[in-house]
Amino acid sequence: MSTARRVIKNTGFLYAKMGITIFISLYTTRLILNALGASDFGIFNIVGGAIAMLGFLNAAMAGATQRFMSYSEGEGDREKQRKIFNISVLLHFLISLIVGIALLIAGWFFFNGLLNIAPDRKYAAKIVYGSLIISTMFTVMTVPYDAVLNARENMRYYAMVGIIESVLKLLAAVAVVYLIGDKLVLYGIFMACVPLITMMIMRVYCHRKYEECVIAPKRYWNKKLMKQMTGFAGWSFLSSASSIISQYGMGIVLNHFFGTILNAAQGIANQISGQLMTFSQTALKALNPVIAKSEGNGHREMVIRASFAGSKFSFILFSLFSVPFIVEADYILKVWLAHVPAWAVLFCRLQLLRILSEQLTISINSGIYAQGDIKIFSQLKGILNILPVILTALFFYLRFPPYMLYIVWIFCWSILGGMVALFFAHKNLGMSYERYMRAVFIPCVLLNVVAFACTLFLISFLAEGLFRLSLVVAISVVLHGVLGWFVGADRSEKQIAIQLYKTLFGKLKLKPAR
């Protein structure tokens, strides 16, 4: 099967999973917000917020292992893959212990003056936090299996596990609605059990399906490979951990100055952005193994082209769904939620703008990681990741409004972070700045400006409601489709799209009657 067909097939599996899980997740959020109330929902997001961050930590850490697995897959070395798997199992066991101890130490500071939580809710918050620690450790230890599924490009099973996880979360929310007791405690415990169940399913499958999933550390020990993986995983972990600490820290800073109600608004913004991000991340999930395998094969030009394509279409896909939401956020939140927390509308808009701007270089990062020289890159990313926490605390101390959190975030992560990624792509991959501007930046910005201008013009003379929302969505789809084809896609990308069209719709044509 060709690379293009394989990416298309895997993307199809992931989009099917995405369509199901988004619907379930949005309904789950509505249920749990009504069951807990704004204050307890805010407490869960600030104390148990790291549970939501586990997905990002898991994906980031799996990316480090997946880079070596996919690289060796490109080399065609199955024996080396067994060594990589065993070393990654050992590494992530050690990382899980470090993370568990770090969370225990951090918990003492959280509940002794750092968090602004009502005294009568501290016990419930501590139980949620304790459940989180156990869940985190087991999740980290299953990262090697996630990496194997991605390196093997088995997106069908990966999609099945994702659907099971969403159903379990829905069942947890339904149970909280009907069970008697402290609903925050019950929800925290149930949510901590979900990753344990899904990850055990993944582990059993990988050991039965893939020959490289054999745990024999003594037999497959390799000191040189261990040193390479430790260095790469360490720098990768620095970057991903600092990102997660920053996101969690921003929530703590917001809580310290403004209380749990603002955390509820932030939680809603995170839910919305997280669901919309799946549209762009789905395509990247199928593309990232191709980037690493191409580097393993020595095809640097393919790495650069795939990195450009990933960033460009990730931006276009996220823009397609985020533009209508940014424009109609007030109406959508009123329909979706029974009670919209204060600041939730503005937080959602700014969060979506932040993530949208980050898509411009998202696959450039994948290319840098595939090349492997990430020490200085990760150090700079780590500094930029932590910087917003410090600056936001300073601005809040000077009595700036809550939305300053997102302004600082956009400046540090999107603008400065994007510039750092482009510099290292030029230095390590030989990427041309001019080529990036022509292939990615200019087409994406032009498309987005036109989409926002047209939708904002439309809402200026129509009354708020379902009819206006439908028109905004329709115009967004048409504009992104037309401009994405004529402005965004190059000749080779158009050929792939035509091939996909023929593959999908050619089978639907009726055979002529005899």
From TrEMBL:
It is found in: Cell membrane. Pfam families: Polysacc_synt. Keywords: Cell membrane, Membrane, Transmembrane, Transmembrane helix. The chain crosses the membrane at residues 12-29, 41-63, 84-111, 123-145, 157-180, 186-206, 303-327, 382-400, 406-425, 437-463, 469-488. InterPro entries: Poly_Biosynth_Transport, Polysacc_synth. The keyword Mitochondrion does not apply. GO terms for cellular component: plasma membrane. It is a multi-pass membrane protein. This is Flippase.
